[in-house]
Amino acid sequence: MLCLGIESSCDETGLALVEDGKLLAAVLATQADVHALFGGVVPELASREHYRFIGPLFDDLMARAGKKTCDIEAIAVSRGPGLLGALLVGVAFAKGLAVATGARLVGINHLHAHLLAAGLEQPLYFPALGMLVSGGHTHIYRVEGAAALTTLGKTLDDAAGEAFDKVAKVLGLPYPGGKLLDELAMRGKAEPLLFPRPYMDNDNLDFSFSGLKTAVAQYVAAHPELLDFPHPLRDAALAPQALCDLCASFNLAVAETLCMKLERALHRNKDVQHILLAGGVAANSLLRQHMAALAQRHACTLVMPSLALCTDNAAMVAYAGWCLASQGFEHSLDFETIPRGKSIPHDMQRRAFA
Ligand code: KG4
Ligand code: ZN
Q1: Segments of the chain assigned to CATH 3.30.420.40
Q2: Which CATH class is domain 126-304?
Q3: Taking burial as the number of CB atoms within 10 A of a residue's CB, which of 29, 75, 162, 304 is the most buried?
């Protein structure tokens, strides 16, 4: 089955084709430079850029894959969570194409697509515990399969990626700051007690990162010499050592907090032997190391997507769509687009694939 995937939930316009579980081709237009001018994603600009790029990207994708529009059998599109206007561009494009081609339509939970992304590179085993760490979300899931994911815990305020981006902003680093902060941290020496491991004095699986961000901001306010470097800093090699050390301490606090809660979830799900790590922050070097050690301690397998599949992309949407469509799931044309903050309904129907 040939499945087209469409991603437009935030600031990346992506389209990809997956055939029989394998990635055929993918195209991605990033808007990072547009939003960097404003220090964060501007929703209206994001919608306009998606609208400008989606048509030409589709033509480019089909040419690269050597496929015709009528070859598409299923169309998967991120339906949420995300920026409503941005999502609507992708969903409207998908619905129009489904009407024109008669292809099966599947609205995809963007977070579930992140978690399944590594299935393009290696087999996934279930039940698994999934940790989704992105710019907008931090969730722990119990994953029984592509169509059965249950949320066990999530952030009550800032997401892990948001904490990286906000701390990067406090440090005067360009947006989005996660990747550069990671590079600086790798050059630094962490002071384990400098920052708290937030929201641990409870027995739940939720997170709260806003206090950690405030702790960093207060530390920086008390040590203004930390910001004494040429702005904008784009090359980690030019950063002062004290800045790298601070980044290392912050990065360690985030990685350890995520691991502590995942470890708690493993204790409560003793039948689980597989861990999935996904989302933009899954690209973080220290988090990958800590998760690998955690998996080894618990004799679990750890599946992490390659770096290109961690951040937003359409290959993961096409793959999730292919998994669902080949199990017979689909949506009718009136399925809704769901913005960030609202829960996504389980409204797929099941029909055998002809
Ligand atoms: O999953 P994603 O591409 O978009 C959302 O769905 O949110 O995640 C983007 C987030 C941003 O906050 C970015 O700063 C963060 O992932 N990020 C990183 C790294 N690479 C991207 N955070 C920490 N370390 C990285 N290497
Ligand atoms: Zn994402």
Answers
A1: 2-118+311-350, 126-304
A2: alpha beta
A3: 75
DSSP one-letter string for 307-340: HHHHSS-SHHHHHHHHHHHHTTEE--TTPPP--T
Instruction: Give distance in angstroms: CA of 130 to centre of ligand 2.
Output: 14
Residue minimizing CA distance to atom 1 of ligand 1: 280
Q: Please give the pLDDT value at position 354.
A: 61
Contact of 50 with 57, CB cutoff 8 Å: no
- Cβ–ligand 1 distance for 136 under 6 Å, the answer yes
For residues 18 and 340, the model is more confident at 18
What is the CATH number that goes with domain 2-118+311-350?
Answer: 3.30.420.40
pLDDT in tens, 251-298: 999 999 999 999 999 999 999 999 999 999 999 999 999 999 999 999
Cβ-in-10-Å burial (0-12, 13-18, 19+) of 232 comes to exposed
